[in-house]
Amino acid sequence: MKFLPEGLLCESEENKRYFENLNTLYEAMAESRTLEARAVVCEGSHNLIVDLGVIKGVIPREEAAIGIAEGTTRDIAIISRVNKPVCFKITAFERDCYGKTVAVLSRRKAQLECQEKFLANLRPGDIIPARVTHLEQFGAFVDIGCGIVSLIPIDMISVSRISHPKDRFYVGENIRAVVKSIEGNRISLTHKELLGTWEENVSQYEPGETVSGVIRSVEDYGIFVELAPNLAGLAELKAGVHPGQQASVYIKSMIPDKMKVKLIIVDAFDEEIPLPPLRYYIDKGHLSHWIYSPVQSEKLIETVFDE
């Protein structure tokens, strides 16, 4: 079985087949199949009600997530699932007070299986799918399987520095990430290694071109302009420019041994432009060692995954 972030299984034909009738739901229970459907209500007692199409499903509070019964996971983790897909296993069928059949579900059991059969087998350098769940100043929280969340620290998101993860991601975005380290059940992630080396990024540009960019910081000695998530250049100072602005910049020169791109700002302006799709130079498999800097560079920037 393939373990995916919540929301990616919901619309698959295989998943939909089990909601056709009661017989297929019984089949899913017999096979201990992990399914996915939308949670529609969180009761006052924090039981989650799930729409199974032909019948109603109930995830008891203690079965809503790993750690709820132990008190290590807060109830907000249950409440926040309303109107979103949730994964679960069917554990029983019961009759409610009206005599109607109700499926008893467990999200916790689906998460435990994901931990044991997928996450426990990961090692640093593995590239995995993830879905952005929420963004904080210090990093992006992402679902790495069955609603189990991990963190990409802000400095691991890209080589080009950003002031907030919202400058790079949006909630609900499907991304790729790399396992950085593992301590027990805690998995730390990185992302910048998938966005290309200096040479891969700079190969998209030529001196003499005028291209688009984003103002990232204004320093006493110049203005840093992001050309791509893993590539920024330094422009000459220009009055009235501030971080977050869109810009058009002229490329003066590229200096591989110093990893520098020299720019001149033609124009800088305030405009909300949707985040462009991320370009991944690597999106699957395993990374043992990643070097960002070119061979002739005076400075070495690298990530070592396999010690």
Architecture overview:
- The chain is mainly beta and 307 residues long.
- The strands form 4 sheets. The chain has a 5-stranded mixed beta barrel with strand order 1-2-3-5-4.
- It is built from 5 helices and 17 strands.
- It has helices at residues 13-17, 22-30, 76-79, 107-117, 198-202, and strands at 34-42, 48-51, 56-59, 85-95, 101-106, 127-136, 139-145, 148-153, 174-183, 186-190, 210-219, 222-228, 231-235, 246-255, 260-269, 289-291, 302-304.
- Keywords: Ribonucleoprotein, Ribosomal protein.
Based on the model shown, name its key terms.
five-stranded antiparallel sheet, 307 residues, S1 RNA-binding domain-containing protein, elongated, five-stranded mixed beta barrel, 3 domains, structural constituent of ribosome, mainly beta, OB fold (Dihydrolipoamide Acetyltransferase, E2P), single chain, Ribos_protein_bS1-like, S1_domain, 5 helices
Rounded mean pLDDT score: 96
Contiguous uncertain segments of 5+ residues:
none
- Round the Cα radius of gyration to an integer and report it: 24 Å
Structural class: mainly beta
Distance between the first and last residues' Cα: 30 Å
Q: Tell me which CATH architecture of the largest domain applies here.
A: Beta Barrel
The helix-strand sequence is: HHEEEHEEHEEEEEHEEEEEEE
Q: How is the main sheet built?
A: 5 strands, mixed, barrel
By CATH reckoning, the class of the largest domain would read Mainly Beta
